[in-house]
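Re: your question about Multidrug-efflux transporter

S., sorry for the slow reply, the queue was backed up all week. Below is exactly what I fed in.
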Amino acid sequence: MILGNLLQQFYNIADTLIVGQFLGANALAAVGSAYSLMIFLTSVLLGLCMGSGAIFSLQYGAGDREALKRSIFVSLVLIGLVTLVLNVAVFVWIDPILRLLQVPEDVYPLMRDYLWVIFWGLGFTFIYNYYASLLRAIGNSVVPLWFLGVAVVLNIALDLIFILWCDWGVKGAAWATVIAQAVSGVGLCVYTIRKFPEFRIRREDMCMKWQTVREIAVYSSLTCAQQSVMNFGILMVQGLINSFGVAVMAAFAAAVKIDSFAYMPVQDFGNAFSTFIAQNFGAGQMKRIRDGIRVAVVSATIFCVFISLLVFAFARPLMLIFVPVHETEIISIGVQYLRIEGAFYCGIGCLFLLYGFYRGIRKPGMSVVLTVISLGTRVALAYALSAIPAIGVVGIWWSIPIGWFLADIVGLWYYRRLFSRVTRSGILKSV
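Result:
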């Protein structure tokens, strides 16, 4: 899962790297700002797929194959409809969205051109994440990785062809991404249907039983809310960043790719932890849950400390991957961001584990609460601190780790309160 989502990051990272090096600061700012919007839209679909995946894990762990197939059909229909509505909406409201994000006039046409093409790949994003969640729910995380690896290589190759040879500009980067997404999504769908006949939907499985619909809708919508609220907060901060001009936009565009790439493994560790907890919770394996919690905390902490040290020490060389050496202002702003936020990855690592744990024990609502605390703090502090002339844009950078740690405190407090009601011999029995 970690390798798969690291590869998935290459979709936009490849666009950002090639655009930043060959098309200039305005194009870098356009593609980077579009990334925040696309992450928000993708998070809605990813959250729905992750929520369904947790249900799949619980039913697979309990050995209820009939319920699993009904859930596959119901979730496919529900998330497919959401994808269709979302896709139509973004095409219709693309200009109001860009105005809401306060995109500067010299970046506006480039960002609009990029997004108009990228939006055509939203359906393929849904297909890939849906079948990846299904396979991961049954413990198969290798196959999604292979399909994604092929798509990433294709994306990079097409970026170079469309931008350097065909001279299509930012549209070329967008088309490269859409084509790569189509290959990974359709390919994984065909593979799953052919290789796992036990998951093929029969006519008798095509029933929208209220209990199944309710379970999928509630669980998926809560996980979706947790994912989308998190990224909606980032989108609101993106609008604030855009108001500081092209240099800050370009610096943030490059730095946030490094940032996302750095802590993405621990995010996926949290997702894998959620699947582990859900499968064992469904199977009633409480000792394995206790052991898993201990291993997860130690592993995530070691990883976060190691990555924080690397990002802090190599902030400038990392920025130079995306930004030409003569863009000194952009590089300086990006290094400042990375050294502030990168020093506190343990905060986000703990938060991802808490998200995964509460999803796994059928309490996804708590994940939403923690997300609201984290993002609400970040947005409020970002706007408040950046408005002080002596602090400025640095206040936006500091608001991020502060939000993480406040959410961690609440999540750990609730964890202790939850287990104070559980007997020593029956952990999670009363959850």
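Residues 2-419 form one domain. Residues 254 and 322 are 6 Å apart (CA to CA).

Happy to talk it through on Thursday.
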